[in-house]
Structure to design on (577 residues):
Protein backbone atom coordinates (compact mmCIF):
# COMPACT_ATOMS: atom_id res chain seq x y z
CA UNK A 1 0.00 0.00 0.00
CA UNK A 2 1.35 3.42 -0.89
CA UNK A 3 0.20 6.57 0.73
CA UNK A 4 1.38 10.14 0.77
CA UNK A 5 3.82 9.14 -1.94
CA UNK A 6 5.55 12.27 -3.17
CA UNK A 7 6.01 12.41 -6.91
CA UNK A 8 9.60 13.66 -6.76
CA UNK A 9 10.89 10.81 -4.61
CA UNK A 10 11.24 12.98 -1.50
CA UNK A 11 11.18 11.05 1.74
CA UNK A 12 11.91 7.42 2.46
CA UNK A 13 10.80 4.76 0.02
CA UNK A 14 10.82 1.08 0.98
CA UNK A 15 9.98 -1.25 -1.84
CA UNK A 16 10.28 -4.94 -2.50
CA UNK A 17 9.79 -8.28 -0.84
CA UNK A 18 11.57 -11.41 0.25
CA UNK A 19 11.04 -14.49 2.33
CA UNK A 20 13.46 -16.11 4.74
CA UNK A 21 14.04 -19.79 5.48
CA UNK A 22 12.36 -19.37 8.89
CA UNK A 23 9.10 -18.51 7.10
CA UNK A 24 9.29 -14.76 7.63
CA UNK A 25 7.99 -12.81 4.64
CA UNK A 26 8.13 -9.15 3.87
CA UNK A 27 6.43 -7.40 0.98
CA UNK A 28 5.79 -3.70 0.83
CA UNK A 29 5.81 -0.56 -1.18
CA UNK A 30 5.80 2.18 1.39
CA UNK A 31 6.64 5.85 1.03
CA UNK A 32 7.18 7.92 4.15
CA UNK A 33 7.33 11.72 4.02
CA UNK A 34 10.58 13.70 4.18
CA UNK A 35 9.48 15.58 7.29
CA UNK A 36 7.88 14.93 10.63
CA UNK A 37 7.56 11.70 12.57
CA UNK A 38 6.46 8.55 10.79
CA UNK A 39 5.49 5.74 13.14
CA UNK A 40 5.79 2.14 12.01
CA UNK A 41 3.49 0.12 14.24
CA UNK A 42 3.30 -3.65 14.38
CA UNK A 43 3.33 -6.66 16.67
CA UNK A 44 6.51 -8.59 17.21
CA UNK A 45 7.24 -10.58 14.08
CA UNK A 46 5.45 -8.08 11.87
CA UNK A 47 8.74 -7.07 10.28
CA UNK A 48 8.90 -3.51 11.57
CA UNK A 49 12.34 -3.80 13.12
CA UNK A 50 13.64 -5.70 10.11
CA UNK A 51 12.50 -2.86 7.87
CA UNK A 52 14.28 -0.38 10.09
CA UNK A 53 17.49 -2.42 10.18
CA UNK A 54 17.45 -2.77 6.41
CA UNK A 55 16.96 0.99 6.14
CA UNK A 56 19.99 1.56 8.37
CA UNK A 57 22.05 -0.96 6.40
CA UNK A 58 22.45 -3.35 9.35
CA UNK A 59 20.76 -6.10 7.38
CA UNK A 60 20.68 -6.63 3.69
CA UNK A 61 17.87 -8.19 1.77
CA UNK A 62 17.89 -9.10 -1.87
CA UNK A 63 15.05 -7.63 -3.88
CA UNK A 64 14.32 -5.01 -1.29
CA UNK A 65 15.21 -1.45 -2.12
CA UNK A 66 15.64 1.58 0.13
CA UNK A 67 15.87 5.10 -1.21
CA UNK A 68 15.80 8.44 0.50
CA UNK A 69 15.09 11.76 -1.21
CA UNK A 70 15.72 10.13 -4.55
CA UNK A 71 19.03 8.48 -3.58
CA UNK A 72 19.17 4.72 -3.65
CA UNK A 73 20.92 3.33 -0.59
CA UNK A 74 21.17 -0.29 -1.73
CA UNK A 75 24.70 -1.55 -1.30
CA UNK A 76 25.78 1.46 0.75
CA UNK A 77 27.39 0.17 3.97
CA UNK A 78 25.69 1.16 7.23
CA UNK A 79 28.45 3.50 8.38
CA UNK A 80 28.20 5.55 5.18
CA UNK A 81 24.42 6.05 5.26
CA UNK A 82 23.23 9.45 6.47
CA UNK A 83 21.06 7.86 9.14
CA UNK A 84 21.19 7.89 12.87
CA UNK A 85 19.56 5.15 14.87
CA UNK A 86 18.78 3.89 18.33
CA UNK A 87 18.69 0.11 18.70
CA UNK A 88 16.31 -1.87 20.89
CA UNK A 89 19.06 -2.08 23.50
CA UNK A 90 21.00 1.04 24.57
CA UNK A 91 24.18 -0.67 23.29
CA UNK A 92 26.61 1.64 25.09
CA UNK A 93 30.28 0.72 25.08
CA UNK A 94 30.88 -0.73 28.55
CA UNK A 95 34.54 0.35 28.71
CA UNK A 96 33.72 4.01 28.09
CA UNK A 97 32.05 6.50 30.40
CA UNK A 98 29.02 8.46 29.26
CA UNK A 99 31.01 11.38 27.85
CA UNK A 100 33.39 9.09 25.93
CA UNK A 101 30.45 7.12 24.59
CA UNK A 102 29.12 10.37 23.16
CA UNK A 103 32.55 11.42 21.87
CA UNK A 104 32.87 8.10 20.04
CA UNK A 105 30.46 9.44 17.40
CA UNK A 106 32.54 10.66 14.45
CA UNK A 107 31.83 14.28 13.48
CA UNK A 108 29.61 14.62 16.54
CA UNK A 109 27.61 17.81 16.96
CA UNK A 110 27.84 19.96 20.12
CA UNK A 111 28.09 17.49 22.97
CA UNK A 112 27.11 20.02 25.68
CA UNK A 113 23.80 20.56 23.89
CA UNK A 114 23.04 16.84 23.85
CA UNK A 115 24.09 16.47 27.49
CA UNK A 116 21.69 19.27 28.46
CA UNK A 117 18.83 18.09 26.23
CA UNK A 118 18.89 14.59 27.70
CA UNK A 119 19.68 15.63 31.27
CA UNK A 120 23.00 13.82 31.42
CA UNK A 121 24.98 16.54 33.23
CA UNK A 122 25.44 14.57 36.43
CA UNK A 123 26.19 11.30 34.64
CA UNK A 124 28.99 12.13 32.21
CA UNK A 125 31.71 10.44 34.26
CA UNK A 126 29.81 7.21 34.87
CA UNK A 127 30.22 3.89 33.13
CA UNK A 128 27.11 2.27 31.58
CA UNK A 129 26.85 -0.40 34.29
CA UNK A 130 26.44 2.39 36.86
CA UNK A 131 23.34 3.71 35.07
CA UNK A 132 19.69 2.66 35.24
CA UNK A 133 17.98 1.36 32.12
CA UNK A 134 16.30 4.71 31.55
CA UNK A 135 19.57 6.60 31.95
CA UNK A 136 21.32 4.27 29.51
CA UNK A 137 18.58 4.82 26.98
CA UNK A 138 18.95 8.59 27.39
CA UNK A 139 22.63 8.28 26.56
CA UNK A 140 21.75 6.16 23.53
CA UNK A 141 19.28 8.82 22.37
CA UNK A 142 21.87 11.57 22.91
CA UNK A 143 24.34 9.56 20.84
CA UNK A 144 21.84 9.24 18.02
CA UNK A 145 21.04 12.95 18.33
CA UNK A 146 24.75 13.83 17.96
CA UNK A 147 25.35 12.11 14.67
CA UNK A 148 24.86 14.48 11.78
CA UNK A 149 22.26 12.58 9.78
CA UNK A 150 19.42 13.26 7.40
CA UNK A 151 17.12 10.65 8.91
CA UNK A 152 16.62 9.41 12.45
CA UNK A 153 15.46 5.84 13.11
CA UNK A 154 14.13 4.87 16.54
CA UNK A 155 13.71 1.14 17.14
CA UNK A 156 11.29 0.73 20.07
CA UNK A 157 13.06 3.38 22.15
CA UNK A 158 10.86 2.84 25.20
CA UNK A 159 10.01 -0.85 25.17
CA UNK A 160 13.03 -2.08 27.15
CA UNK A 161 12.09 0.19 30.05
CA UNK A 162 9.78 -0.22 33.03
CA UNK A 163 6.59 1.87 33.19
CA UNK A 164 8.08 4.64 35.32
CA UNK A 165 11.16 5.08 33.16
CA UNK A 166 8.97 4.95 30.07
CA UNK A 167 6.79 7.83 31.26
CA UNK A 168 9.85 9.87 32.16
CA UNK A 169 11.55 9.30 28.86
CA UNK A 170 8.57 9.64 26.53
CA UNK A 171 8.44 13.47 26.66
CA UNK A 172 12.19 13.57 25.99
CA UNK A 173 11.81 11.41 22.90
CA UNK A 174 8.91 13.58 21.75
CA UNK A 175 10.99 16.74 22.21
CA UNK A 176 13.90 15.19 20.37
CA UNK A 177 11.61 14.31 17.46
CA UNK A 178 10.33 17.89 17.30
CA UNK A 179 13.65 19.67 17.74
CA UNK A 180 15.65 17.61 15.29
CA UNK A 181 14.15 19.14 12.16
CA UNK A 182 14.81 15.90 10.33
CA UNK A 183 12.42 13.13 9.42
CA UNK A 184 12.07 10.43 12.06
CA UNK A 185 10.94 6.85 11.62
CA UNK A 186 9.69 5.57 14.96
CA UNK A 187 9.10 1.83 15.32
CA UNK A 188 6.86 0.62 18.13
CA UNK A 189 4.16 -1.89 18.98
CA UNK A 190 2.13 0.67 20.92
CA UNK A 191 -0.09 3.29 19.30
CA UNK A 192 -0.41 5.38 22.51
CA UNK A 193 3.38 5.68 22.58
CA UNK A 194 3.45 7.57 19.29
CA UNK A 195 -0.05 9.02 19.12
CA UNK A 196 1.00 12.47 20.32
CA UNK A 197 4.17 12.72 18.20
CA UNK A 198 3.38 10.89 14.97
CA UNK A 199 2.49 12.88 11.86
CA UNK A 200 2.17 9.75 9.82
CA UNK A 201 1.36 6.13 10.66
CA UNK A 202 1.98 2.86 8.89
CA UNK A 203 0.59 -0.34 10.36
CA UNK A 204 2.49 -3.56 9.68
CA UNK A 205 1.07 -7.04 9.97
CA UNK A 206 2.94 -10.17 8.89
CA UNK A 207 5.40 -8.20 6.81
CA UNK A 208 2.72 -6.20 5.02
CA UNK A 209 1.46 -2.67 5.36
CA UNK A 210 -2.23 -2.82 6.19
CA UNK A 211 -2.78 0.89 6.72
CA UNK A 212 -0.91 4.12 6.17
CA UNK A 213 -1.69 7.81 6.42
CA UNK A 214 -2.30 10.40 9.11
CA UNK A 215 -3.19 8.92 12.50
CA UNK A 216 -6.77 10.15 12.09
CA UNK A 217 -7.09 8.46 8.70
CA UNK A 218 -5.48 5.21 9.73
CA UNK A 219 -7.49 4.73 12.88
CA UNK A 220 -10.73 5.61 11.05
CA UNK A 221 -10.03 3.41 8.06
CA UNK A 222 -8.86 0.39 9.93
CA UNK A 223 -11.92 -1.80 9.61
CA UNK A 224 -10.38 -4.81 11.28
CA UNK A 225 -12.31 -5.05 14.51
CA UNK A 226 -9.96 -7.85 15.50
CA UNK A 227 -6.72 -6.06 14.72
CA UNK A 228 -4.56 -6.91 17.71
CA UNK A 229 -2.84 -3.56 17.59
CA UNK A 230 -5.35 -0.85 17.23
CA UNK A 231 -8.98 -0.70 18.15
CA UNK A 232 -10.91 0.65 15.26
CA UNK A 233 -12.33 3.97 16.27
CA UNK A 234 -11.53 7.63 15.97
CA UNK A 235 -9.00 10.20 17.04
CA UNK A 236 -10.24 13.54 18.34
CA UNK A 237 -7.89 16.52 18.25
CA UNK A 238 -8.34 18.47 21.45
CA UNK A 239 -6.82 21.32 23.47
CA UNK A 240 -6.11 21.16 27.16
CA UNK A 241 -8.63 23.19 29.21
CA UNK A 242 -8.34 22.35 32.90
CA UNK A 243 -7.32 19.69 35.39
CA UNK A 244 -9.43 18.34 38.24
CA UNK A 245 -6.83 17.15 40.73
CA UNK A 246 -9.35 15.65 43.17
CA UNK A 247 -10.60 13.19 40.58
CA UNK A 248 -7.44 13.03 38.45
CA UNK A 249 -9.36 14.08 35.36
CA UNK A 250 -8.26 16.44 32.60
CA UNK A 251 -10.85 18.44 30.75
CA UNK A 252 -10.12 18.92 27.07
CA UNK A 253 -11.92 21.12 24.58
CA UNK A 254 -12.65 20.67 20.87
CA UNK A 255 -15.03 22.66 18.66
CA UNK A 256 -16.96 23.99 21.65
CA UNK A 257 -17.40 20.50 23.12
CA UNK A 258 -15.60 19.11 26.12
CA UNK A 259 -14.09 15.73 26.83
CA UNK A 260 -12.94 14.46 30.21
CA UNK A 261 -10.16 11.90 30.26
CA UNK A 262 -7.99 10.30 32.92
CA UNK A 263 -4.70 11.72 34.08
CA UNK A 264 -2.93 15.02 34.52
CA UNK A 265 -2.19 16.50 31.09
CA UNK A 266 -1.18 19.98 32.24
CA UNK A 267 2.33 19.53 30.92
CA UNK A 268 1.33 18.23 27.52
CA UNK A 269 2.46 20.69 24.89
CA UNK A 270 0.32 21.55 21.90
CA UNK A 271 -2.77 19.76 20.65
CA UNK A 272 -3.71 16.50 22.31
CA UNK A 273 -4.88 13.52 20.29
CA UNK A 274 -7.31 11.23 22.05
CA UNK A 275 -7.96 7.84 20.56
CA UNK A 276 -11.52 6.72 21.18
CA UNK A 277 -12.10 3.03 20.41
CA UNK A 278 -15.44 2.44 18.69
CA UNK A 279 -16.39 -0.24 21.21
CA UNK A 280 -16.20 2.31 24.05
CA UNK A 281 -18.72 4.66 22.46
CA UNK A 282 -22.36 4.10 23.35
CA UNK A 283 -25.32 5.84 21.76
CA UNK A 284 -28.48 7.31 23.31
CA UNK A 285 -31.42 9.13 21.77
CA UNK A 286 -31.74 11.42 24.79
CA UNK A 287 -29.23 13.04 27.08
CA UNK A 288 -29.20 10.65 30.03
CA UNK A 289 -29.76 12.06 33.52
CA UNK A 290 -27.75 10.43 36.24
CA UNK A 291 -25.07 8.29 34.59
CA UNK A 292 -21.52 7.14 35.11
CA UNK A 293 -20.63 8.20 31.58
CA UNK A 294 -18.72 11.45 32.15
CA UNK A 295 -18.72 12.31 28.48
CA UNK A 296 -21.97 12.93 26.70
CA UNK A 297 -21.47 14.50 23.28
CA UNK A 298 -24.21 15.67 20.87
CA UNK A 299 -23.55 13.96 17.53
CA UNK A 300 -25.18 13.34 14.17
CA UNK A 301 -25.01 10.05 12.23
CA UNK A 302 -22.83 10.34 9.10
CA UNK A 303 -22.92 6.79 7.83
CA UNK A 304 -23.51 3.22 8.90
CA UNK A 305 -21.30 0.34 7.92
CA UNK A 306 -21.57 -3.37 8.58
CA UNK A 307 -18.43 -4.83 10.13
CA UNK A 308 -17.33 -8.31 9.00
CA UNK A 309 -18.19 -9.81 12.40
CA UNK A 310 -21.88 -8.85 12.32
CA UNK A 311 -21.60 -5.65 14.32
CA UNK A 312 -22.24 -2.17 12.94
CA UNK A 313 -19.87 0.78 12.74
CA UNK A 314 -21.61 4.13 13.11
CA UNK A 315 -19.61 7.17 11.99
CA UNK A 316 -20.75 10.29 13.81
CA UNK A 317 -20.15 13.96 13.20
CA UNK A 318 -19.10 15.57 16.46
CA UNK A 319 -18.35 19.30 16.31
CA UNK A 320 -16.78 18.87 12.89
CA UNK A 321 -14.70 15.80 13.81
CA UNK A 322 -15.60 12.19 13.25
CA UNK A 323 -16.34 9.83 16.10
CA UNK A 324 -17.02 6.16 15.61
CA UNK A 325 -19.26 3.81 17.56
CA UNK A 326 -19.53 0.05 17.24
CA UNK A 327 -22.93 -1.38 18.16
CA UNK A 328 -25.00 -4.49 17.59
CA UNK A 329 -27.54 -4.80 14.81
CA UNK A 330 -30.23 -4.97 17.45
CA UNK A 331 -29.20 -1.54 18.79
CA UNK A 332 -29.33 -0.14 15.28
CA UNK A 333 -32.91 -1.34 14.97
CA UNK A 334 -33.92 -0.12 18.41
CA UNK A 335 -32.47 3.35 17.84
CA UNK A 336 -33.73 3.45 14.22
CA UNK A 337 -30.37 4.79 13.12
CA UNK A 338 -30.01 6.45 9.72
CA UNK A 339 -27.70 9.14 8.33
CA UNK A 340 -28.55 12.62 9.60
CA UNK A 341 -30.15 11.42 12.83
CA UNK A 342 -29.12 13.45 15.92
CA UNK A 343 -28.29 11.66 19.15
CA UNK A 344 -25.80 11.53 22.01
CA UNK A 345 -22.53 9.64 22.19
CA UNK A 346 -21.63 8.33 25.64
CA UNK A 347 -18.02 7.64 26.48
CA UNK A 348 -16.64 6.43 29.80
CA UNK A 349 -13.71 8.52 30.96
CA UNK A 350 -11.93 5.42 32.26
CA UNK A 351 -11.79 4.18 28.68
CA UNK A 352 -9.78 7.25 27.71
CA UNK A 353 -6.19 7.42 28.80
CA UNK A 354 -3.53 8.81 26.54
CA UNK A 355 -0.70 8.19 28.96
CA UNK A 356 1.98 5.82 27.74
CA UNK B 1 74.64 -15.12 38.87
CA UNK B 2 76.87 -16.61 36.19
CA UNK B 3 77.55 -15.00 32.84
CA UNK B 4 75.94 -18.00 31.15
CA UNK B 5 72.73 -17.45 33.04
CA UNK B 6 72.67 -13.69 32.39
CA UNK B 7 73.31 -14.21 28.67
CA UNK B 8 70.53 -16.79 28.43
CA UNK B 9 68.18 -14.62 30.48
CA UNK B 10 68.74 -11.63 28.18
CA UNK B 11 68.40 -13.82 25.09
CA UNK B 12 65.19 -15.39 26.34
CA UNK B 13 63.74 -11.99 27.21
CA UNK B 14 64.66 -10.56 23.80
CA UNK B 15 63.24 -13.57 21.97
CA UNK B 16 59.97 -13.56 23.90
CA UNK B 17 59.62 -9.78 23.62
CA UNK B 18 60.17 -9.67 19.86
CA UNK B 19 57.96 -12.70 19.29
CA UNK B 20 55.15 -11.22 21.39
CA UNK B 21 55.13 -7.96 19.42
CA UNK B 22 55.07 -9.75 16.08
CA UNK B 23 52.49 -12.23 17.33
CA UNK B 24 50.10 -9.50 18.40
CA UNK B 25 50.47 -7.78 15.04
CA UNK B 26 49.57 -11.03 13.28
CA UNK B 27 47.01 -12.43 15.73
CA UNK B 28 44.84 -9.32 16.20
CA UNK B 29 43.61 -8.99 12.60
CA UNK B 30 43.71 -12.78 12.10
CA UNK B 31 41.57 -13.47 15.17
CA UNK B 32 39.11 -10.71 14.27
CA UNK B 33 38.78 -12.26 10.83
CA UNK B 34 38.34 -15.74 12.29
CA UNK B 35 35.71 -14.47 14.73
CA UNK B 36 33.71 -12.65 12.07
CA UNK B 37 34.10 -14.65 8.87
CA UNK B 38 31.48 -17.06 7.61
CA UNK B 39 33.80 -18.65 5.07
CA UNK B 40 34.12 -22.42 5.17
CA UNK B 41 37.92 -22.27 4.83
CA UNK B 42 38.15 -20.58 8.21
CA UNK B 43 37.89 -23.91 10.02
CA UNK B 44 40.96 -25.18 8.17
CA UNK B 45 42.88 -22.01 9.02
CA UNK B 46 41.92 -22.45 12.68
CA UNK B 47 43.05 -26.08 12.63
CA UNK B 48 46.36 -25.08 11.05
CA UNK B 49 46.97 -22.46 13.73
CA UNK B 50 46.04 -24.91 16.50
CA UNK B 51 48.44 -27.68 15.35
CA UNK B 52 51.18 -26.76 17.88
CA UNK B 53 48.67 -27.49 20.65
CA UNK B 54 48.40 -31.16 19.73
CA UNK B 55 51.55 -32.12 17.80
CA UNK B 56 54.71 -33.18 19.62
CA UNK B 57 57.08 -30.17 19.39
CA UNK B 58 59.57 -32.42 17.66
CA UNK B 59 57.23 -32.94 14.70
CA UNK B 60 56.88 -29.22 14.19
CA UNK B 61 60.58 -28.77 14.82
CA UNK B 62 61.42 -31.39 12.23
CA UNK B 63 59.37 -29.73 9.48
CA UNK B 64 60.60 -26.27 10.42
CA UNK B 65 64.18 -27.52 10.30
CA UNK B 66 63.60 -28.88 6.80
CA UNK B 67 61.96 -25.63 5.70
CA UNK B 68 64.78 -23.54 7.13
CA UNK B 69 67.52 -25.47 5.38
CA UNK B 70 69.53 -23.33 2.98
CA UNK B 71 68.10 -25.04 -0.08
CA UNK B 72 64.48 -25.11 1.22
CA UNK B 73 61.96 -22.32 0.48
CA UNK B 74 62.03 -20.63 3.87
CA UNK B 75 65.79 -20.79 4.37
CA UNK B 76 66.55 -19.81 0.78
CA UNK B 77 64.06 -16.97 0.89
CA UNK B 78 65.52 -15.69 4.13
CA UNK B 79 69.06 -15.86 2.75
CA UNK B 80 67.94 -14.09 -0.40
CA UNK B 81 66.53 -11.21 1.67
CA UNK B 82 69.09 -10.96 4.46
CA UNK B 83 72.12 -12.88 3.24
CA UNK B 84 72.00 -14.88 6.48
CA UNK B 85 71.02 -18.46 7.24
CA UNK B 86 67.87 -19.14 9.25
CA UNK B 87 68.48 -22.51 10.89
CA UNK B 88 70.45 -22.38 14.13
CA UNK B 89 70.16 -18.59 14.36
CA UNK B 90 68.23 -16.19 16.58
CA UNK B 91 66.05 -15.18 13.61
CA UNK B 92 65.19 -18.83 13.09
CA UNK B 93 64.12 -19.07 16.73
CA UNK B 94 61.88 -16.03 16.29
CA UNK B 95 60.19 -17.60 13.25
CA UNK B 96 59.68 -20.94 14.99
CA UNK B 97 58.43 -19.30 18.17
CA UNK B 98 55.83 -17.34 16.22
CA UNK B 99 54.50 -20.57 14.73
CA UNK B 100 54.26 -22.51 17.97
CA UNK B 101 53.02 -19.66 20.18
CA UNK B 102 50.41 -18.36 17.73
CA UNK B 103 47.48 -20.47 19.03
CA UNK B 104 48.14 -19.35 22.57
CA UNK B 105 47.57 -15.77 21.46
CA UNK B 106 44.97 -16.15 18.71
CA UNK B 107 42.59 -18.51 20.50
CA UNK B 108 41.74 -16.32 23.50
CA UNK B 109 41.51 -13.31 21.19
CA UNK B 110 39.18 -15.01 18.72
CA UNK B 111 36.94 -16.33 21.48
CA UNK B 112 36.72 -12.90 23.08
CA UNK B 113 36.06 -11.22 19.72
CA UNK B 114 33.33 -13.77 19.00
CA UNK B 115 31.57 -12.78 22.19
CA UNK B 116 31.33 -9.13 21.20
CA UNK B 117 27.64 -8.26 21.61
CA UNK B 118 26.03 -7.89 18.20
CA UNK B 119 24.36 -4.62 19.23
CA UNK B 120 27.71 -2.95 19.96
CA UNK B 121 28.86 -3.66 16.40
CA UNK B 122 25.53 -2.37 15.09
CA UNK B 123 25.75 0.72 17.28
CA UNK B 124 29.21 1.53 15.93
CA UNK B 125 27.95 1.14 12.36
CA UNK B 126 24.97 3.44 12.79
CA UNK B 127 27.18 5.93 14.62
CA UNK B 128 29.08 6.20 11.35
CA UNK B 129 32.26 4.45 12.50
CA UNK B 130 34.07 2.66 9.66
CA UNK B 131 34.95 -1.03 10.15
CA UNK B 132 38.66 -0.22 10.55
CA UNK B 133 38.05 2.53 13.08
CA UNK B 134 35.53 0.32 14.84
CA UNK B 135 38.19 -2.37 15.28
CA UNK B 136 41.02 -0.05 16.30
CA UNK B 137 39.20 2.54 18.41
CA UNK B 138 36.33 0.59 19.92
CA UNK B 139 36.97 -3.16 19.77
CA UNK B 140 40.61 -3.21 20.88
CA UNK B 141 39.94 -1.07 23.99
CA UNK B 142 36.76 -3.09 24.64
CA UNK B 143 38.81 -6.31 24.67
CA UNK B 144 41.83 -4.73 26.38
CA UNK B 145 41.97 -7.31 29.15
CA UNK B 146 41.97 -10.22 26.72
CA UNK B 147 44.62 -8.45 24.65
CA UNK B 148 46.85 -8.14 27.71
CA UNK B 149 46.23 -11.75 28.72
CA UNK B 150 46.92 -13.03 25.20
CA UNK B 151 50.19 -11.09 25.00
CA UNK B 152 51.30 -12.47 28.37
CA UNK B 153 50.42 -16.03 27.34
CA UNK B 154 52.36 -15.62 24.09
CA UNK B 155 55.35 -14.29 25.98
CA UNK B 156 55.21 -16.98 28.64
CA UNK B 157 54.80 -19.81 26.18
CA UNK B 158 57.74 -18.58 24.13
CA UNK B 159 59.86 -18.56 27.28
CA UNK B 160 58.71 -22.07 28.12
CA UNK B 161 59.26 -23.89 24.81
CA UNK B 162 62.06 -26.43 24.68
CA UNK B 163 61.64 -29.13 22.07
CA UNK B 164 61.38 -27.01 18.94
CA UNK B 165 64.09 -24.66 20.13
CA UNK B 166 66.47 -27.56 20.60
CA UNK B 167 65.72 -28.93 17.14
CA UNK B 168 66.06 -25.78 15.08
CA UNK B 169 68.23 -23.59 17.31
CA UNK B 170 70.71 -25.97 18.76
CA UNK B 171 72.69 -24.69 21.67
CA UNK B 172 74.73 -21.64 20.73
CA UNK B 173 75.51 -19.28 23.63
CA UNK B 174 74.24 -15.74 22.98
CA UNK B 175 72.47 -16.86 19.80
CA UNK B 176 70.09 -19.70 20.56
CA UNK B 177 70.79 -20.92 24.08
CA UNK B 178 67.66 -19.77 25.88
CA UNK B 179 66.93 -20.57 29.54
CA UNK B 180 65.23 -23.90 28.90
CA UNK B 181 68.24 -25.11 26.90
CA UNK B 182 70.66 -23.76 29.48
CA UNK B 183 68.85 -25.74 32.16
CA UNK B 184 69.11 -28.88 30.04
CA UNK B 185 72.89 -28.27 29.72
CA UNK B 186 73.32 -27.69 33.42
CA UNK B 187 71.51 -30.91 34.31
CA UNK B 188 73.44 -32.85 31.67
CA UNK B 189 76.71 -31.66 33.22
CA UNK B 190 75.40 -32.42 36.74
CA UNK B 191 75.69 -28.76 37.77
CA UNK B 192 72.64 -28.99 40.04
CA UNK B 193 73.35 -25.76 41.93
CA UNK B 194 73.10 -23.68 38.73
CA UNK B 195 70.20 -25.81 37.52
CA UNK B 196 68.29 -24.97 40.70
CA UNK B 197 68.69 -21.25 40.07
CA UNK B 198 67.68 -21.46 36.39
CA UNK B 199 64.70 -23.72 37.06
CA UNK B 200 63.66 -21.57 40.02
CA UNK B 201 63.70 -18.40 37.92
CA UNK B 202 61.53 -20.05 35.23
CA UNK B 203 59.15 -21.53 37.78
CA UNK B 204 58.59 -18.35 39.78
CA UNK B 205 58.37 -16.12 36.69
CA UNK B 206 55.82 -18.43 35.07
CA UNK B 207 53.73 -18.71 38.21
CA UNK B 208 53.65 -14.93 38.70
CA UNK B 209 52.80 -14.34 35.05
CA UNK B 210 49.97 -16.87 35.00
CA UNK B 211 48.53 -15.59 38.27
CA UNK B 212 48.41 -12.07 36.86
CA UNK B 213 46.87 -13.36 33.62
CA UNK B 214 44.12 -15.34 35.28
CA UNK B 215 43.41 -12.54 37.73
CA UNK B 216 42.98 -10.18 34.77
CA UNK B 217 40.65 -12.58 32.98
CA UNK B 218 38.43 -13.37 35.97
CA UNK B 219 34.89 -12.14 35.33
CA UNK B 220 33.29 -9.45 37.42
CA UNK B 221 36.15 -7.01 37.34
Amino acid sequence: MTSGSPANGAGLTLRGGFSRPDGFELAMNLALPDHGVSALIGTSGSGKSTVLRITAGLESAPSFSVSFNGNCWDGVPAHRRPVSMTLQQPALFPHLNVLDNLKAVPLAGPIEEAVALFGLGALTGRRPHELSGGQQQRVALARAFLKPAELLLLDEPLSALDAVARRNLAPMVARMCRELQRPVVYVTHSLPEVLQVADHLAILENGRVIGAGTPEQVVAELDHPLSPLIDSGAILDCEFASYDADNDLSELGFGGQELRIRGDLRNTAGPIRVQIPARDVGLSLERPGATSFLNCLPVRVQRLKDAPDGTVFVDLDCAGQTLRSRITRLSRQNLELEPGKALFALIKSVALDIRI
Amino acid sequence: MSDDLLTSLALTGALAGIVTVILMAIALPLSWWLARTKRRGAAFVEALIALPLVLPPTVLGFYLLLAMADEAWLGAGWRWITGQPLAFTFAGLVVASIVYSLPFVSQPLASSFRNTPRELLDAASVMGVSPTARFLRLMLPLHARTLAAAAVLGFAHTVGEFGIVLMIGGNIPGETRVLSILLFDQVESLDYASAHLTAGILLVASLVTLTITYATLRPGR
Observations:
- Chain B has eleven helices and no strands.
- Chain B has a mean pLDDT of 92.
- Chain B has one domain: 3-217.
